[in-house]
Write a structure and sequence with these properties.
The strands form 3 sheets. Strands 4, 5, 6, 7, 8 and 9 form a 6-stranded antiparallel β-sheet that branches. The chain has a 4-stranded antiparallel β-sheet with strand order 11-12-10-13. The chain has a 3-stranded antiparallel β-sheet with strand order 1-3-2. The protein has 316 residues and is α+β, with helices and mostly antiparallel strands. The termini are far apart. It is elongated. Strand 11 and strand 12 form a beta hairpin. It contains 11 helices and 13 strands.
Amino acid sequence: MSKAKRLIDIMLFVSAKKKFTAQEIADTFNISVRTVHRYLLDLSDMGLPIYAEQGRHGGYTVLSNALLPPIFFTEEEAVSIFFAFQSLHYYRDLPFNTEMKSVSQKLYDSLQKEAKKKVDSLQSYMAFWNPKRAITTPLLTDVLEAIINHSQLHIQYESKSGITPKHVQPIGVYAHDGLWYMPALLLSNEKILLFRVDRIHAMEVSDESHKTTMNLQQWLESAYKPQHPIRLYVELSSEGVRQCLSEPHLEKAVVLLSDGTGYIDMMIDQGELQFNSSLFFRLGPHAIVKEPQALIQLLRQHALELLAIYPEQNES
């Protein structure tokens, strides 16, 4: 058996066992204790964190941050993982950012010469580009660690009313359009609210935990279900169709007609009226809202506010 294969087998053995003696390895792999010590030195040099305990009952311990067993990727798999990391490159803040850069570099270094040429060539012609936001999220990693540990958080949160204290039980975090969001149970009233992580100015982790009724995936699915449904019906020109197909929350609701025009007929939440009024006001004559009346009133209000800013000038 080759030395490389033997080292891999011993690495798998000690990573699973955590605590062991040189004699155990010698007996398991039918090699001498002297050879075992030599192999353990090699594994330590490779980065496996092995701690030697002296004394009569001494032995070895693999520390908790042990390396994972080796995983062998095909060239195409390695390239795909490399580009998966590249797709996150334009996020200003990421949890485990340093580690992801390290993994990406290790993957690149492990590629054969021809594979590296392929990656370099692809990077010249393909990018997962998204403008980096200037907003920083310094507490992102701390928030994520608290969530993993099911901890409650006492946070100082910035909103329209200023910076106020909140006592929350986070459900998870997710990224959208360059920003990080944290849905969390507000313990003062048992309501789930959505917080922007970059607006958390300070936080204190509590050992207490509160069992939430849903996980992050369940919350994301429920977030798209209207709590107070109201019908939205909009007639679209061909340009209106094109614009609405670019809006993630409207894309699936656009019905295309044979002449290139179309319409939207869907249920939305009443709380989304203000957001949708800004969108349809921007589209102007290319999106004619027929329902609901409340949305039509918001559009009229926008138009009147704009006319007040730009009154008609009488020519002299």
